[in-house]
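Rotation project, supervised by the postdoc (A.L.). Task for the rotation student: set up a whole-complex structure prediction and record inputs and outputs verbatim in this book. Inputs entered:
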Amino acid sequence: NAGVTQTPKFRILKIGQSMTLQCAQDMNHNYMYWYRQDPGMGLKLIYYSVGAGITDKGEVPNGYNVSRSTTEDFPLRLELAAPSQTSVYFCASSYSRGVGQPQHFGDGTRLSIL
Amino acid sequence: QQPVQSPQAVILREGEDAVINCSSSKALYSVHWYRQKHGEAPVFLMILLKGGEQKGHEKISASFNEKKQQSSLYLTASQLSYSGTYFCGTARSNAGGTSYGKLTFGQGTILTVHP
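Outputs recorded:
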């Protein structure tokens, strides 16, 4: 049982480049989330999804886009990468509303923008 | 608005106890607690829903005071494996008495347990 799988694990981008961070879960969870974690800080919600075709913004959505075409996959797109987007990105999922169910996290993607 | 955790850091010897607090200025529907070891993903510890319940998991337990919008995590007889950063995540109540389902995480409390 893989849980939440994120790829790639590490990536270095140049300023202005674009990339997609992949996230897949095999637990048939409805809710999926993208967080970023800056060094020594807590998790900040970027975007979340309550099911296929439904997404909404979190606290820090600027510079990112998401889509959810299937229950399993929730990719995060960075357009025109900036140094401020250097961070560790975590994808998470939960069975239903996050308030009553634990969120299961992937291992993260460590992204550096140079 | 981000919940506030205290203390920011705590250092213990094995066998000692610790309390980590999480406070919010908004009405809360639930509080989640997670532990994260360096370079790893956060791992779920427990959820407390409004109603003032207290939960336990081995030697780690937590309480949730809905009226004070506070939660506390209690670590008893600490072990070396308890070292890590502890985060609370809070879900706000909406006007209908339920929640929108989004968590806001605190800044974390670094717990270090020495032999």
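Student's summary: The mean pLDDT of chain B is 88.
Supervisor addendum: DSSP finds no helices and eleven strands in chain B.
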